[in-house]
Structure formats: C-alpha cells, structure tokens
Amino acid sequence: MDLGIAGRQAIVCAASKGLGRACAFALAREGVHVTLTARNAEMLEATAEEIRKASGVTVTTAAGDIATEEGRAAALAACPEPDILVNNAGGPPPGDFRDWERDDWIRALDANMLAPILLIKATVDGMIGRRFGRIVNITSAAVKAPIPILGLSNGARTGLTGFVAGLSRQTVKHNVTINNLLPGPFETDRLRKTMEGGAKANGRSVEEEMAQRRKDNPAGRFGDPEEFGAACAFLCSAHAGFMTGQNVLLDGGAFSGTL
Fold first, then answer.
1. Across the beta sheet with 84-87, what order do the strands follow?
2. Considering the entire predicted model, what is its pTM?
3. Based on the number of CB atoms within 10 Å of its own CB, is 113 exposed (0-12), middle (13-18) or buried (19 or more)?
4. Where is the region Disordered (predicted)?
5. Nearest to 113 by CA among 66, 48, 166
6. Is there a contact between 149 and 198 (Cβ–Cβ < 8 Å)?
7. Are the C-beta atoms of residues 14 and 44 closer than 8 Å to each other?
C-alpha cells in the first residue's frame, strides 16, 4: 500500500534507538523526510546515517532533550513546518510513590505530558493551515492497564491521553489527526532495563525473566520494533484521516479486555 506521504516532513522524537528509531525508519521508507531528536548526539547521527543510506530521504538531526525548551527549539528550528509529529520520550523510573518528591513528578510531567503538548501547540496550527497533519504520541500500555511500580508514567501519560481526547476532536475537520500508540513489551534496550527489577525479585537472571515474560504473553513473544514502526507509519498516512483520538494498543494480546 502506498501511504500517500512521500515528500512530507516529519519530526520524530527520541529517535536514536528503540521505538522512536523504528518509527523514523518506517516513515523514511515511505519517502518522508525526517528530523530526528535525541539526547546522545553521536548515537543520533549514527541512526540518521543508517536511514539516509537505507532510504535516500533527507535526514536532519537536532540533538537535545525534548523535555526542555532548548531541545524543542532545536527540533523546531530544524523542521519548522512538519506535516507529521511523532512525540516520544523515555519513561520515568519505576518505584514506590512514597519515595517520590514533587521534583520527581515534575520531571515525569515535563517529559511525558507537557513536552508533547508544547510540541503540538507549536505545530498544530501550521498543519491546520496546510490542511494536513498527523500527530502520533507514543505513550504506554500502562495507560490502558496501569502498572503499580510505574506510577510516574501512569500519571503523566494518562494526563496526555486526556488532553488529546479533547483536542483531537477539534482538529480532525482540518485533516489533522492526533492518536496515541500504546506499546506493550517490545524488544528494546528499555524493556531489558525494566526486566532487571523483576529478575532480581524473582531470583532469576534477566534472560530467564525475559523468557518467562515472552511465554506469558498470549503471542508467545515480545513485539518487533519494526511492527511498531509500521503501525506508526499507517497512522501518519493519507489513509488515516478518519481516525483520531484513538489509543492503539500493541501488546500481543496481553490486555484482557473488550475496550
């Protein structure tokens, strides 16, 4: 299927590795020129070069922390009129809410709620004026089924979800859609990091813990980031203009529910 977005411009946040990287690759394969953000400049440029070689599109980098005003300004300077925005940021650390102070909550909100909202604010009116826009927020399956030790993430990402639910109904008549992608367990460095706590608690090695978690998932495996990137590319496509305000769960069937 031709997604109808060749030649468009996109900002993809936290794109040097993991799910952000997969989304950037998927868009580039469709002919989208991409601007990548990430904190690690060296890793970011390495990813950018891989995408250039694989796709032939224009790839621009904007190193910086997207949770900061400076990081967002750098991304917008590199791509001031994006047609596509993929919001993404690493989640806050796990823990017990009794141990978190106000500053911990503010950092979580800055990265996982306020940064996406501010990037939407900076770009959505331009998209409306051009009569095309696709905004995809990478959130978490924990929005659908909260994970107790991820309270900071649960709170911040659910706040973003509520905001999007309202705004997305206002922009869709201008062919600007806003949707959320909710990843479950995907084969990424971050997943392995989060498995370390469970492995320790269960007296297993990280590899043993991951093997058990794969077995426990209805799909019998973890997700491949390329699958996630493909889903993102579809939501960004010309064919997704009637789909907005949705929370698309990719978890191999782990969430056992009807809604």
1. 59-63, 33-38, 9-12, 84-87, 133-138, 176-183, 247-250
2. 0.95
3. buried
4. 196-222
5. 66
6. no
7. no
Residue 148 sits at the vertex; the CA angle it makes with 144 and 152, to the nearest 5 degrees, is 80
What is the rounded distance in angstroms from the CA atom of residue 36 to the CA atom of residue 48? 7
**Lookup: tokens for 177:** 């859609």
| Residues constituting the chain | 259
Give the integer Cα–Cα distance in Å for 52 and 60. Answer: 10
Distances in whole angstroms, Cα of residue 216 to Cα of each of 26, 95, 208, 212, 246: 29, 23, 12, 6, 27
Q: Please report, in angstroms and rounded to a whole number, the separation of the first and last CA atoms in the chain.
A: 28
Which residues share a beta bridge with 134?
84, 177
- With a CB cutoff of 8 Å and minimum separation 6, the contacts of 140 are 91, 150, 153, 157, 182, 183
Residues 189 and 183 sit within 8 Å (Cβ to Cβ): no
Q: Are strands 9-12 and 84-87 parallel, antiparallel or unpaired?
A: parallel
Taking the CA of residue 118 as centre, how many other CA atoms within 13 Å lie in the half-sphere pointing to its CB? 17
- Per-residue exposure over 181-202, b if at least 16 CB sit within 10 Å of its own CB, e if not: bbbbbbebeebeebbeebbeee
Q: What is the pLDDT of residues 23-62, one digit of tens each?
A: 999 999 999 999 999 999 999 999 999 999 999 999 999 9
